[in-house]
Amino acid sequence: MRIGEVAERAGVSVRALRYYEEQQLLAPQRTSGGQRRYADGAVQRVRWIQLLLGAGLPTRTIRELLPCVESGVVTTDVLRRLGEERTRIDEQVTELVTVRDRLDALIATAEQPGPGCVRVYA
């Protein structure tokens, strides 16, 4: 597949694919003319990269995890790293829930203002 086709199927930009290549997350073959050609599994790999980036994992960690994700074989070192990342994500979730709850309280106050409060409409 050509770079534009992979980008379209995976829902990412061509620039993102070039970045993934630069970060050694994706390794296309090159034609004699220098064009990138991707294997059939490239779209699925890009989707995994997107999910892991969305979870906040750095590219160096993703580079280590991708072979395990794709093969289903996990070493003890990778298992430890996954546990660390899960703990970090859990902490982020807790923080986000706290922020959401505070926003809910502010919204409730704005919708039912008390004395001295002004209702604000967007």
TrEMBL record:
CDD domains: HTH_MerR-like_sg3. Residues 1-68 form the HTH merR-type domain. Keywords: DNA-binding. Pfam families: MerR_1. Signal peptide: none annotated. InterPro entries: DNA-bd_dom_put_sf, MerR-type_HTH_dom, MerR_fam. It comes from the Bacteria. Transmembrane segments: none annotated. Gene3D superfamilies: 1.10.1660.10. One of its GO terms (molecular function) is DNA binding. This is DNA-binding transcriptional MerR regulator.
